[in-house]
Each structure stands twice: as C-alpha cells, then as structure tokens.
Design brief:
Helix content is 55%, strand content 11%. The longest helix is centred in the last third of the chain and has 29 residues, at 193-221. It is mostly helical. Helix 1 runs parallel beside helix 4. The protein binds flavin-adenine dinucleotide.
C-alpha cells in the first residue's frame, strides 16, 4: 500500500480531518488514514463550544446541514441552598450533537475537498505491508509481518521510529544543561571538535544518556502492543514475556501466565538495579556527585 501523496495525515478525528481538509483545499495531495472505520465509536460527551462554529463560519454552514445540532441558550444553575441563577443569551453558549456524526461529517468534508481517506488502516501498514514504503525503498518484496527475522526487524524499526523523539528530547535536555563556559575553555585550549565531543560533551551528557537508555530498556523488556498489533500474537520471532503471559492467560492457563509476569517483574527489576548501581543512572536528577 503506497501513500501516493505529498502529506500523510494520521488519525481521522477532528484534528486530522481539519488538517487534511485545509491541505487538500490548498491543492496539496493529502492522504488521511485512520485505523478505525467512520462513524467510529468514541468515548466523548456530546457537545462543543459555540465558538467553534463562529471560528469556522464556512464549515459552520456545512455542519448545520449535515449534523443535528441543538443550541443551548438558557442555563439554570442551582446551589445546594436552593439559590438559583438563570443565564440567557441570544447567542448559544454551547451546542450539543452526536460526536460520531460530527467527526464523520468533518471527515466527509475532507474527502469532498479532495483528501484521499483510507479507513481501517494503521500507519504502520503503510510502511510494512507487502506493497508498502519499506519494500518500495528496498525494491524488494519482503513479507514483513509474517513469521521470521523480517518480523523482528519490522518491530525494531517501528519501535525505534516511534520512540526516537522521546529519546531525542531527553538527550536534548541533557545537552542544554552543559554550561557554555566549558566549551569556551576548550576552544581557548585549542581542542578539536572531536576531542571536545569525546572529552566534554559525551561525559557531561552521559547521565541523561544512561537514563534514556534505562527508560527504553525497561519499555522494551515489557513490550506488548507493537508486536501484538504489527505482527500478531503467537509469533515466535517477536515473542516477549508480556505476550507469553497474555497467550497463557487467554487460554485460561493462569499459573504459567502469572509465572511469566513474575519473571518479567524480576527481570525488569534486576536490569533497572544494574543500571542504577553499575552505570550510575541518575533517575531522580540529583546531578553529578549528588545524593552522597
Ligand atoms: C470521555 C471523553 C469525553 C469528551 N467529551 C468532550 C465533549 O463533550 N466536547 C468536546 O469538545 N470534547 C470532548 N472530548 C475531547 C474530544 O474527544 C477530543 O478533544 C477530540 O476527539 C480530539 O480530536 P483529535 O482529532 O485530536 O483525536 P481523536 O478524535 O482521538 O482522533 C485520533 C484518531 O487517530 C486514530 N489513530 C490513532 N493511532 C492510529 C494509527 N497508528 N494509525 C491510524 N490511525 C490512528 C484513532 O483511531 C482516532 O480516530 C472528550 C474526550 C473524552 C475522552
């Protein structure tokens, strides 16, 4: 499944539909995809602020004709003492509607102005389906989500891609606390860029790096969702302890499931302890030499 679009918008909720609508209306070739089918179930109250319609007047006319909207113009508030207050306005305070209808109407509008919409498609399908981006880039025909090394690789790539921004932010925070003076001193001493990186940046950013690796390590050890949705359950190449526990629990083998969960807990605890004791991960932010 090739994107075949300049912009891929993931998620067909109000944010995604509005983004796709705006881009498509400006002539950008846009593909919007959502893992659900619309109208989708959504745990959401049935209202929006009137300001929303005021802010998008062109859209308001369309929504008024496609969605059943009730305007709330009068509100009575009553206190425990029995005192009450009636607020009344010519302009509605609030609108009530069915959110499933509202969201589906926004998506239909995005379609109408030219966005291509794919329902029941996950963003990872675009990458790893047989005719997806990965095969396109490699000019290969690998069945990424079938049992084997390629399934493991697909999970590794997807997980790295998914969590890289988080790690980037953690490391950026670590880099930002390195004082500028140490770089100035290195410059005065004639240190080369490589030496400055090796002797200053790396040692000073090490606490943040160790914490970042620790967080990722703990996340990876208990990984469940990604292999489960991307590859599927009971695949040897992407089996994790959480998946083993889930499989046994689904077959009502509660004993082995509990055993897997307990081993996972011990495993995670040992790795976390090793990181804190051996590598000096500073998870509570005491700073260098703190907490003595
Ligand atoms: C219980 C509850 C009550 C609420 N009540 C109100 C209310 O009364 N009034 C109000 O204005 N707001 C309410 N909200 C908030 C409102 O629902 C959200 O602000 C709004 O839905 C956010 O829109 P969105 O487009 O950002 O995200 P969403 O509407 O959550 O849309 C995100 C979409 O992305 C899709 N998606 C996620 N991952 C992938 C993937 N990997 N591949 C493909 N698709 C993916 C999901 O299927 C989903 O359809 C409520 C929220 C909750 C939880």
């Amino acid at each position: 499944m090739r994107p075949g679009a300049d912009v891929v918008v993931v998620g067909g909720g109000p944010a995604g539909a509005m983004a796709a609508m705006t881009l498509a209306a400006r002539g950008v070739s846009t593909l919007l995809l959502d893992k659900k089918r619309f109208p989708r179930d959504k745990p959401c109250g049935g209202g929006i602020r009137y300001g929303v319609l005021r802010r998008f007047p062109a859209l308001a006319d369309y929504l008024r004709t496609t969605v059943e909207i009730h305007e709330i113009r009068k509100v009575r508030m009553e206190g425990p003492s029995g005192a009450s207050l009636l607020a009344e306005s010519d302009e509605p305070f609030y609108l009530t509607l069915r959110r499933t209808e509202f969201d589906a109407a926004l998506l239909a509008r995005a379609r109408a102005v030219g966005a291509r919409v794919l329902e029941a498609v996950r963003v990872t399908d675009l990458l790893f389906s047989a005719d997806g981006v990965a095969n396109d880039l490699l000019r290969a025909n690998i069945l990424w989500t079938t049992e084997g090394f390629q399934a493991w690789l697909a999970v590794v790539i997807a997980d790295t891609w998914k969590t890289a921004p988080f790690i980037g932010l953690l490391v950026l925070a670590g880099l930002q606390i390195i004082p500028a003076e140490v770089y100035e001193a290195a410059k005065v001493d004639g240190s080369s860029a490589w030496r400055t990186f090796w002797r200053i940046t790396l040692p000073l950013v090490k606490p943040a790096l160790v914490v970042a690796v620790l967080f990722r390590m703990l996340d990876v050890l208990r990984m469940f969702d990604l292999p489960f949705v991307l590859i599927g359950p009971q695949k040897k190449s992407t089996q994790t302890l959480s998946l083993l526990a889930y499989n046994d629990m689904s077959n009502l083998h509660f004993g082995p499931a509990a055993a897997y969960a307990t081993v996972l807990f011990a495993y995670v605890a040992v790795v976390a302890y090793a990181f804190v004791r051996l590598l000096g991960a500073d998870i509570v932010g005491r700073g260098v030499g703190g907490g003595r």
